[in-house]
Specification:
The longest helix has 17 residues. Helix content is 73%, strand content 0%. The chain is an all-alpha fold.
Length: 107
């Protein structure tokens, strides 16, 4: 059974290995829920609320920082020589709005 504690541990294990945005972590956790559903394991009815609670908790603990992730992602893509439009599209796929990253691209 996938309970809140197990899902929280999955989130922590993922964050120990990768820097992530809240949007991406949400996708990771939802994929894990889908995997469990495919295996016909029991899933709590309020799973979306549980995921949101986990996201809030890891943000409050400082494990997820969307602004830091955004800055690092822009720097990483710019150092690879990616174009501005490519970077904008990539960030929008990661759940950011154009207002969120324009200031970093203008630097």
């Amino acid at each position: 059974m996938l309970n809140p504690k197990r899902l929280y541990n999955i989130a922590l294990f993922y964050l120990k290995r990768y820097d992530s945005s809240s949007f991406n972590l949400r996708k990771v956790l939802k994929r894990r829920v889908l995997k469990e559903q495919i295996k016909n394991n029991e899933i709590p009815e309020n799973i979306n609320e549980i995921i949101e609670d986990i996201i809030k908790k890891v943000i409050s603990l400082g494990y997820v920082n969307d602004k830091r992730f955004l800055e690092n992602e822009v720097r990483r893509l710019m150092s690879k020589g990616k174009s501005r439009s490519y970077i904008e599209q990539k960030l929008m796929l990661n759940g950011y709005k154009s207002d969120d990253f324009k200031e970093f691209l203008n630097e």
